[in-house]
Design a protein that fits this description.
By secondary structure, the chain is mostly beta strands. The chain is built from no helices and eleven strands. Strand 4 and strand 5 form a beta hairpin.
């Protein structure tokens, strides 16, 4: 069983930075990629960034150049560094374990709120 635990969310001012963490445990060898999704109130869940076990990364167009996904294999942890935060960044962020078909397990989510 794959377990995903997000942390690092909170309240931040516009233009500020925040780093989210996703601790992965159990069944890690079944994972082809780790993804970050977000869901804002009244909006559909959307992919923010993902990283494959081979080192490839993908980003939503809206966050390119501002967000960076990375991993520390020794700690079984994936990070999402978020810079130049905007009001529309506000959402619940989820870490996902992906196979070749897509996400098959989700974390509980962590709230990110951008407000002055």
């Amino acid at each position: 069983q794959v377990r995903l635990v997000e942390s690092g969310g909170g309240l931040v001012q516009p233009g500020g930075s925040l780093r989210l963490s996703c601790a992965v445990s159990g069944g890690i060898f079944d994972i082809d990629a780790i993804g970050w999704y977000r869901q804002a109130p009244g909006k559909q869940r959307e992919l923010v960034a993902s990283a494959t076990s081979g080192g490839s990364t993908n980003y939503a167009y809206s966050v390119k150049g501002r967000f960076t996904i990375s991993r520390d294999n020794a700690k079984n942890t994936v990070y999402l560094q978020m810079n130049s935060l905007k009001h529309e960044t506000t959402a619940v962020y989820y870490c996902t374990a992906d196979n070749l078909w897509g996400p098959f397990n989700w974390g509980q989510g962590t709230q990110v709120t951008v407000s002055s």
